[in-house]
Each structure stands twice: as C-alpha cells, then as structure tokens.
Design brief:
With about 270 residues, this protein is α/β, with parallel strands linked by helices. The chain contains 11 helices and 12 strands.
Length: about 270
C-alpha cells in the first residue's frame, strides 16, 4: 500500500508542460513484451528530444486510464473498443498502426491434439472437451477480447468452467505464458510476444493462420477538450511521427531471428 501511495503521488506531481519534454504512452503490454517499444522509441526521443514514458496495461485498462486522463496517447489493439472510445467523446482520431496475429501455444506433445485442426473454433472446442488446461489472460485486454470472440462463436462461456479446465491469470501476456508453461497448459497469445519470449521450455505454436486471429493495432489521440494535458505539441509530434513512413519503416524493420514481429500499415500514410 505504501509503495502504491508513493507511485500515485509521483503521478500527481508530473507536469506535462513542454519544459519536461515528456509524454505518457498508454500501451498494450504486447508492444512492451515484444521489445518493440524499447527498439522504436529511442529513434523518436533522439530526433525530438522528447521522452516517452510507457505505461503498459491491458487494452481495457489502458482505455479506462485514458478516460481518467492518466496518459496522453493510446496504443491498443481492440478496434471496437477504440471506436467506441472516440464515439463516446474521449478521443478525436484513430489510425491503424501495424498488425500481426494471434497464435495458440501449448506443450510440444500436444495432449489435446489440436495441430491438425482447420480453424480456431475447432481448436477451442477440442480443448474444452479435453482434460487439458487453458490459461486465459482474463484481464479485458485486446488479446482476451479476441479469445472471447472465439468462445462466443462456439457458444461456450468458459467462465462456467473456471477452476476446472479454464483458468484466468488476470495478468499480462508474459506472465500468462509463464503460468501456461508451468502448468503444461494451452494459451492464446500475440505472435510478437511469443517470439520474443525467452523461456519457452517445452511449449511451441500449435495452431495459427485462422483469419479470426488477425491482430490490428491502433493509435488513438485523446480529446484535449476532456483532458487538458492532451493539448500538447509534443503529443502531436509523436502521433504524427509514429504513423509517418519513417517510423513505419522502422516498425517493419524490427525482427527477431529474421522474422518480422509487426507489419506496418505505412502504405496508408504520407510523410
């Protein structure tokens, strides 16, 4: 509690004026856990001498924090929630930024035998009828929303089986993967986080490629009429830069072992 209080006091004392040359980016955990932001942000910071402070949360939590003006700009991956955020008057613009996909990982020996299945719905149905554990983030994140969309397609409410074959981590992607590995279980993750994950142990990607597992990231500009801190030239510079061809090229160049982790939408933008 004492540590939390100190943290909140620190936040309350942050000035957003240009004298500090700092902005707060409310970002999904996958952009942090994949290593993308650690790679990308120094290019912006060096060019403009503006520091970007990353607050990594699940998409649902990030959007809620933005509604309370506890950040300056949003980088998330839940299109419907992002559009609703703008329609409700909290944001003024949204742009596609980059995309990848979700994958289903599990033990190498694949005890539920999902590798030969043709679509994600069949995979989820097979896991639900097996005796094998499935670990969900269960945190309202973009990943969790995508997972829940698949359960809804097969008309299964996994919460009805909580504590049986379905467990909710309530944590970020990295922690959820760790739990899945520790329990020899399956889980649903974005590809970039998995590729950058160090301790894969005996787990691997067992299912991929279903179009329903497409994962689009978006950038949302907060409404400065609601959040006075959002009326900041530094934010405008960052927003314009990260969707420019320069930054989009850098995103496309981010690789791990020769594999692109994100595909930029830069063809949509001009410098």
């Amino acid at each position: 509690m004492k540590i939390l209080l100190i943290f909140m006091l620190m936040l309350s004392n942050v000035s957003y004026g240009s004298d500090l040359n700092a902005i707060k980016l409310l970002s999904t955990t996958s952009t942090r856990d994949s290593g993308l932001l650690e790679y990308l942000l120094p290019f912006f910071q060096s060019k403009y001498n503006i520091q970007v402070q990353v607050i990594a949360l699940g998409t649902g939590q990030a959007l809620q924090a933005a509604k309370s003006c506890n950040g300056d700009i949003l980088l998330t991956h839940a299109l419907e929630l992002e559009n609703k955020f703008i329609l409700d008057g909290y944001g003024i613009s949204r742009d596609d930024l980059m995309y990848n996909d979700f994958v289903i990982i599990g033990p190498d020996n694949d005890p539920a035998d999902i590798q030969s299945l043709k679509n994600a719905s069949d995979v989820f149905r097979k896991i639900s009828t097996s005796s094998n554990l499935f670990i969900s983030r269960g945190d309202g994140s973009g990943t969790n929303i995508s997972e829940n969309n698949i359960w809804a397609l097969i008309k299964i409410n996994p919460i009805d089986f909580s504590g049986q074959w379905y467990l909710e981590a309530g944590q970020g992607m990295g922690s959820t993967i760790n739990i899945a590995i520790g329990k020899n279980a399956y889980t649903y993750t974005d590809r970039a986080t998995w590729l950058n994950f160090k301790n894969k142990a005996n787990h691997s990607i067992l299912f991929e490629g279903d179009p329903i597992m497409f994962n689009q990231y978006g950038l949302v500009r907060l409404d400065p009429d609601r959040c006075v801190n959002a009326n900041n030239r530094n934010i405008d510079l960052f927003y314009g830069w990260i969707i420019s061809k320069e930054a989009q090229f850098l995103i496309g160049e981010y690789m791990l072992n020769g594999t692109k982790l994100f595909i930029p939408n830069y063809h949509k933008y001009d410098d």
